[in-house]
Amino acid sequence: LEFHQSVFDELREKLLERVSAIALEGKVEERYKKLEDLLEKSFSLVKMPSIQPVVMCVMKHLPKVPEKKLKLVMADKDLYKACAVEVKRQIWQDNQALFGDEVSPLLKQYILEKENILFSNDISVLHNFFSPSPKTRRQGEVVQKLTQMIGKNVKLYDMVLQFLRTLFLRTRNVHYCTLRAELLMSLHDLEISEICTVDPCHKFTWCLDACIREKFVDNKRARELQGFLDGVKKGQEQVLGDLSMILCDPFAINTLALSTIRHLQDLVGQDTLPRESPDLLLLLRMLSLGQGAWDMIDSQVFKEPKMEAELITKFLPMLMSFVVDDHTFNVDQKLPSEEKGPVPYPSTIPEAFTKFLQENRIACEIGLYYILHISKQRNKNAFLRLLPALVETFSDLAFSDIFLHLLTGNLTLLGDEFALEEFCTSLFDGFFLTACSRKENVHRHVLRLLLHLHHKVAPAKLESLQKALEPTKQSGEAVKELYNQLTEKLELCKPSPAEVTETPSMELPLPTVPTPASR
Predict the structure, then answer these.
(1) Using one digit for the tens of pLDDT, what is the confidence trace for 353-376?
(2) Alpha-carbon distance 340 to 342, whole Å?
(3) Cα angle value 420/426/430 (rounded, 5°)
(4) pTM of the full predicted structure?
(5) What count of other Cβ atoms lies within 10 Å of the Cβ of residue 335?
(6) Which residues have a Cβ under 8 Å from the Cβ of 330 and sit 6 or more positions away?
């Protein structure tokens, strides 16, 4: 039996090699004719484990497996599982529901991965959500699997895009827009021209991808991108729906917003108004298109959203005036002080600024990025001045995961300020805690921040925060888990009883009452 088996295995190996060779030799019609005959003869044995690999190999090399055979494979779960992805593609392209079942768990996994990064316990300015380069992100498991499932099949690619559009519409989750761009660029990396040449967004995405890599839109690329937008012909406006989805990708928005802030600073130095900078106007145009993606796809009205003049004539100059306030304050500090005493930092914000953040989506996005910019520069004065404007923003953008993820990272740079009562009251009571009870994600981000910085916060403040952040019955598992981690950390940091007795009595106004959690 052993001898028989080894001869059989040897023959099967030879046959598999031969099948692969036939698929590459001779005239196209002849080689496929041979393989079709072979399939006809061997298919009846497809359920025999020893012969199955040969049948599967023949089918894999046929560009068009006969319909009847595909139906038989599809009807049998084990056969379907065993067949190569090349055969599955032929089944999927006429069975959208089946393809959807295969793709759906991958899309769920992708969204989960993104959310895990946003909520990760590692808080850092250097390594955040936007740190990985586009090329690194495209190596992710989900993108690679989808790329392999699609192969060179335009029909399957279109189906995936349709799934992404539908899910984006249903959930408003912008990570689907990221996947749309990553998938196209992954096929671009593999030089799959069959798909890249038919996707009208290819060159635009390729150019934008280079900007995302540099985290900046330079003048040359800005003109290229503008060329694509201006080149949308009459009757092809539907392309705008796809372009807006590419621009709605958080990585694209991040790049456009960072470039906008940089431009505004340059304009301050050049004494130029925003309306006089064509590069800045183009960035706003793309931000506006990206931010309007959901509405455009939902309404199926494919035209660029109209830019509000006041955004350019009032809001951006206002932001520039904040930059000027910082400059003048810094210069004032360096001047020898006369009798009049030190000049205080301006503490009020124009009412119009708060109104813009509440009513205008683009203004809100740029305003939030300006606040990220000043917190990254450790500019405590400017940060505390503008923070009250964040309590109410356009569709609660200041409480979105991406903004809070970046803000918590930047706040680690202001770690020493957490010892000050005024700073903590403004940040926690004035901002975070206003939304904790109604938005679970905010609760999670505050706990992440405290896990990282609890040792910097004044003990009395920490105690009141611990009470305020205690999970309720409605709180999700993630919040409870983070809260328990924080409680454990704080227990470890408590001084031993011997140390406590030495402190003067006036510092112990509160008798220690066991909290419900520790009972």
Answers:
(1) 999 999 999 999 999 999 999 999
(2) 7
(3) 150
(4) 0.89
(5) 9
(6) none
Burial per residue of 169-204, b for 16 or more beta-carbon CB atoms within 10 angstroms, e otherwise: eeeeebbbbbbbbbbbbbbbeeebeebbeebebbbb
Q: How far is CA 161 from the centre of its chain?
A: 17
Q: What is the mean pLDDT of the chain?
A: 91
* CA 20 – CA 231 distance, rounded (Å): 46
pLDDT tens digits, 375-428: 999 999 999 999 999 999 999 999 999 999 999 999 999 999 999 999 999 999
Instruction: Kindly state the greatest CA–CA separation across the chain.
Output: 107
- Is the pLDDT at 493 greater than 90, yes or no? no
Q: How many of the other CB atoms lie within 10 Å of CB of 250?
A: 19
The number of residues in the chain equals 519
What is the DSSP secondary-structure string of 165-182? HHHHHHH--THHHHHHHH
User: Is the Cβ–Cβ distance between 165 and 177 less than 8 Å?
Assistant: no
On whether the CB atoms of residues 165 and 245 are closer than 8 A, the answer is yes
Extract the tokens encoding 98: 């089946």
Measured CA to CA, the distance from residue 212 to residue 257 in angstroms comes to: 11
User: What amino acid occupies position 303?
Assistant: K
Any alpha helices (H) in 335-360, and if so which ranges? 351-359
| 422 burial level (CB within 10 Å; 0-12, 13-18, 19+) | exposed
